[in-house]
Amino acid sequence: MKDEFSEILFTDEQIQQRVKELGAQITEDYCDIKPTLVGILKGCFVFLADLARCIDLECDIRFLQVSSYGFMSVSSGNVKIGNEMDFEIEGRDIILIEDILDSGFTMMALRNLLMKNTPASLKVCSLLDKPMRRKVQIAPDYLGFECPDEFVVGYGLDFSERYRNLPYIAVLKPEIYG
Ligand code: IMP
Ligand code: MG
To answer: Would residue 75 count as lying in a domain?
Structure first.
């Protein structure tokens, strides 16, 4: 383990096992439906790549780059999408794929935005959740793991664009980001 980490929270093996279970659950729940997986960049990229290969269905895979313009703009629902939303939402069964739910502002704002385009259904799948930090009422429909109130990195999650490529999830020591 690297010096910057205080603990490995979830190992490669634990993550792969849980991702398989999530994929099987989604496969069962969407058995006659072609879901559109919408990954929220960049944190989702590892999770979505693994999850998609554990879903035994025809899937449409899309990405949205969401820019956070600070606490206030996000909390007011003013989420800015960095790339063009160049795919159909209307009538589609959307599963938003996120790395982590923290305050919930990002996901809430994004969900409200997509709901304006009248999808047939919209669910949220998050690898991690910090429920104790929630500021708005939103919960994932599919969840990998509950996460303690610490800053975590790896498996797509970054600190200043570092650590995304680690196969495990670790707790970053506060002195590194503090
Ligand atoms: P929210 O709008 O507060 O729920 O923000 C969620 C976003 O914050 C996630 O998509 C991550 O990009 C980022 N984030 C929150 N907690 C962590 C963490 O522990 N490590 C890395 N990124 C995090
Ligand atoms: Mg993110």
So the answer is: yes
> Cα–chain-centroid distance for residue 124?
8
CATH number at 130 reads: 3.40.50.2020
**Which of 3, 32, 56, 102 is an active site residue?**
102
Report yes or no: 172 and 5 within 8 Å, Cβ to Cβ. yes
| pTM of the model as a whole | 0.94
The total number of structural domains in the chain stands at 1
- Residue 24 is predicted with a pLDDT of 98
Question: Which residues are close to ligand 2, an ion, with C-beta < 5 A?
Answer: 43
Q: For residue 100, how far is its CA from the centre of ligand 1 (angstroms)?
A: 6
67 versus 89: the higher-pLDDT residue is 89
In DSSP notation, 59-74 reads -EEEEEEEE--HHHHH
Active site residue 102: yes
Mean pLDDT of the chain: 92
Nearest CA to ligand 1 atom 22: 157
* Residue 65 in tokens: 């780059």
How many Å lie between the centroid of ligand 2 and the Cα of residue 19? 18
HEC letters along 72-124: HHHHCCCCEECCCCCCCCCCCEEEEEEEEECCCHHHHHHHHHHHCCCCCEEEE
- Per-residue pLDDT at 72 exceeds 90: no
